[in-house]
């Protein structure tokens, strides 16, 4: 039987890490065996480490970075210590509602020859005005991303939940070049090196959007900085191809969402503000961008 390991990079995730581990241990797996769940704590200062260590399941273990290194470093470390046939990486601030989530996420690797899969992200309900604007913006974006090339594009390869074949995770390395862009880079690396990517729309992972403008701008810096990282390290022609989206699809999707969620109009100035902020701040080496309001899930 094929084997599975789960890696959870975490920094100050005491509010959710216990529930996430409990949920993962209750997952139903048909043709793959869960070997272990490894939480890599990036110098957490809250009760994250204590919560992980309190688990009585021997498959749950904690690995601590001796200094803050960020998610990309933690992924490299997870891959280096893993030997399972499949490694699933899950963000610590996410919610899983489906007991078959893991089986759905790894199935294309087990049965269709895929090397990388990504779950479809779903937003938990927002209460704040900013959060509701961002909810509408995500409906707009996902309407584009999953239609374009049937989801076979860089935009659907979200880092919140992915599965890697052993062949891929033993080959890829993020290092210091891709600290903010590790999710996009994993997709591009697949394409360049003839690995196979598969977006799994039936495997849904839930998360909370930032509920304040400062938190959103802080989180947006990761996206803008990720493109800067990729530009610095990957051929421009490759990036233009990977990030291309048809104008007709963008306009059509915006008009469709506008009729249902007119609040999306407020997203335009937010996008402009975030973009302008990124022009003055190219510091992509921050170990971990934390949007506090997105942690209250």
In short:
The protein has 297 residues and is α/β, with parallel strands linked by helices. 42% of the residues lie in helices and 19% in strands. It is globular, with a radius of gyration of 18 Å.
Can you walk through the features of this model?
InterPro entries: Glyco_trans_2-like, Nucleotide-diphossugar_trans. With 297 residues, the protein is α/β, with parallel strands linked by helices. It has a single domain (2-294), classed as Spore Coat Polysaccharide Biosynthesis Protein SpsA, Chain A, CATH 3.90.550.10. Helix content is 42%, strand content 19%. The protein has helices spanning 17-25, 48-53, 71-81, 101-111, 129-145, 166-169, 182-192, 213-233, 236-243, 247-260, 267-280, and strands spanning 2-10, 32-41, 60-64, 86-90, 94-95, 116-123, 161-165, 197-207. The chain has an eight-stranded mixed beta sheet, sandwiched between helices. Helix 5 packs across helix 10 and helix 8 (213-233) packs across helix 11 (267-280).
